[in-house]
Design a protein that fits this description.
single chain; 292 residues; alpha/beta; Rossmann fold; 10 strands; 33% helix; globular
Length: 292
């Protein structure tokens, strides 16, 4: 097989781009599921910097998600730290289906991810009140799980084209190949009280505030179907004690409808007309939501 020179240079350029923006951290504390930590610390680091944990899709990597999003470029402007971890199992999907993965400090992916945050806070004197999480598809699913299992770690979240916390509970796997398809197909429909009970059971006894949430979905998503947006909003409106207040059309762009709960400070959704899997990342809107 002949491999072109341009292909070789292309791979080299890709690797160089990845290496330029991310540093591998091998010893960040307990890492029960052998995740990979990749961090970007900007040249001009803010005093008491914020942290954004950004979670890739199934079959993705942290390095690739860093290149496909603008968070690192924005971090150079704003001085916050980004973490782009990688999952290495089950088609590189995040563990959002097992009992340990849906519990606190029980040896799941979520525990390793939170230890990356703790390491970063300590090493870079980051602000523990300005820790945020975002993700696409499987990364959005894990965002929901982190909000339920470690609500005291994260101030706010945004996510794209995912499912409610616990939607995949008990599924044999978390990937499109290994999972119970009913969740992604939008067939796991529960009452608000049921979703709230499921989320609260992931960190029993916790009575503090939960992270503010902004979640996005496309009407033409055939992989993680649109009813999952409604189930997420049902769950988190119950967790926050807010009710639907209004829709705002063509916001933040044509074809997108903003779904506002309460005064819009704790929970909002976006439904994108004709958009498939996944909704493109809207980094500027995310940073606005995070207060950055």
């Amino acid at each position: 097989m002949h491999i072109s020179t341009s292909f070789v240079f292309g791979v080299a350029a890709f690797s160089a781009a990845v290496n330029a923006v991310l540093t591998r951290v091998n010893d960040f504390g307990s890492n029960p599921t052998n995740l990979q930590m990749n961090i970007n610390v900007p040249a001009k680091l803010a005093d008491k910097p914020a942290i954004i944990l950004a979670l890739h899709l199934c079959a993705g990597t942290g390095e690739l998600y860093a290149l496909l999003t603008k968070y690192n470029a924005l971090s150079e402007e704003k001085g916050f730290i980004t973490i782009f971890p990688s999952s290495k199992k089950d088609l590189n999907c995040w563990e959002v289906n097992t009992a340990k993965g849906l519990s606190r400090d029980a040896g799941g992916d979520n525990q390793g991810l939170v230890n990356m945050i703790k390491y970063t806070i300590q090493k870079y004197n980051a602000d523990p009140t300005k820790v945020f999480v975002t993700g696409s598809s499987s990364g959005c699913m894990m965002t929901n799980v982190l909000m339920a299992t470690y609500p005291d770690v994260f101030a706010a979240s945004t996510c794209y084209s995912g499912v409610a916390a616990g939607c995949l509970a008990g599924s044999p796997g978390a990937s499109p190949i290994s999972s119970d398809p009913r969740c992604a197909n939008g067939q796991i429909i529960k009452t608000q009280a049921e979703w709230v009970a499921q989320a609260k059971a992931m960190y029993p006894g916790y009575n503090g505030p939960y992270p503010r949430m902004l979640t996005w979905h496309g009407t033409a998503d055939l992989l993680v179907k649109p009813p999952n947006l409604g189930e997420q909003l049902k769950q988190w409106s119950g967790m926050h004690g807010v009710e639907f207040s209004k829709n705002v059309t063509n916001t933040p762009q044509s074809g997108y409808t903003q779904i506002v709960y309460g005064d819009g400070s704790k929970l909002m959704g976006y439904i994108a007309e004709g958009v498939g899997h996944t909704v493109p990342v809207h980094e500027a809107e995310d940073l606005k939501w995070f207060g950055l």
